[in-house]
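Follow-up to my post from last week.
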Amino acid sequence: MWEQYANLFVKSIFIENMVFAYFLGMCSYLAISKTLKNGVGMGLAVIFVLTITVPLNYLIDTYLLADGALIWLGPDYEELNLSFLSLIMFISVIASMVQLVEMIVEKFSPALYGSLGIFLPLIAVNCAILGGSLFMQIKDFSGVTEAAVYGFGSGIGWFLAIVAIAAIREKMAYSNVPAPLRGLGITFIITGLMAFGFMSFMGIKI
Amino acid sequence: MKNKNPLFLFISKEKEPFFSKKNRQLLKDPLDDNNPITVQVLGICSALAITVQLWPAIVMTFSVIFVMACSNVIISILRDLIPNRIRIIVFLVVISSLVALVDQFLKAYAYDVSKELSIFIGLIVTNCIVMGRLEAFALGNGVWKSFLDGIGNAFGYGAILIAVAFFRELLGSGNLMGYQVIPDFIYEMGYENNGLMLLSPMALITVGIIIWIQRSRNKDLIEQR
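User reply:
Got it. Predicted complex:
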């Protein structure tokens, strides 16, 4: 059982990395990776929100929305399939969770709020967060723990990616890049090369 | 609001023809000088993931055009009624209802493509282009202009998407839209498909090269140190 969780964890960090395998959350990845400090802040915020929203959406999906999920209300509800509502439901859960997390962090840890605060509102529109929930829906996890492990793992994968690119971009300020490639272009190409590197993790099993 | 006439939303104060120079600019600019992907850096996630083949890229382009045009018009109509503090949630609700519509439509009429696009149709909800244009344009401009802006930006997005998909499918599998275009005798002469183009990292590098070409043509876009 622990083996299964560890396997899922490693898989979601390296093999199915949000940035390098599915290109999710690229917009914030490119916009906020100019300095290492901001990259770390954004990465932590993504880990935080993914770990909360994926299991929460898993519960909503299995007990409210999926085909025949409402059977606990009685046999009359067995036929009901509300899965067409899942998009609206997931995005509202994410947007309200982000708001809630922001308020809680502001209240209890002003220091953390100082470093994460400006990134939290951006997260509601980060595709990595919604993508995590939608992948969870496709993957048919067997329990809420699996969903939580998956959310945490994908968050760490995203964190690794943004920290790596931010460090590279800081160094790159001193190198001589061809003028038309400066900034955005070279970042794309470096991300592509890093993605090739991450492909070599394919097939690893614990 | 002083003006109580409900029609005031549709009547712009300065009378100008529907396709005045300024309006044409709205439609044309996003195709090159102000392209949402290569210049504004919006909506990259979906642009990269679904460009292995041409057909899904075209379907995606049309879905985005529909969602952007409709959501820009809706938000532009409601722009004086939306409280500033909850605008993001209002945007999300409007966009996600439209996307759910597209999703159900594709599932009903084009199931194969919908399977291939998997979660990426759903991810139009968080596609930064839609959100970004709502925030930057539709919230402060009239209905007709917002409509043009939505169409223009969606086409700019689609242009890059289709260009990347074209090269990846042509060089990677020798096909276009699923039909073989590179004739057999070229294969017999020893030509081989470049399987590398089908791997996901090549999408990033292709976009990088497109940016390179665009910026060496148009020096104004080069970033300062």
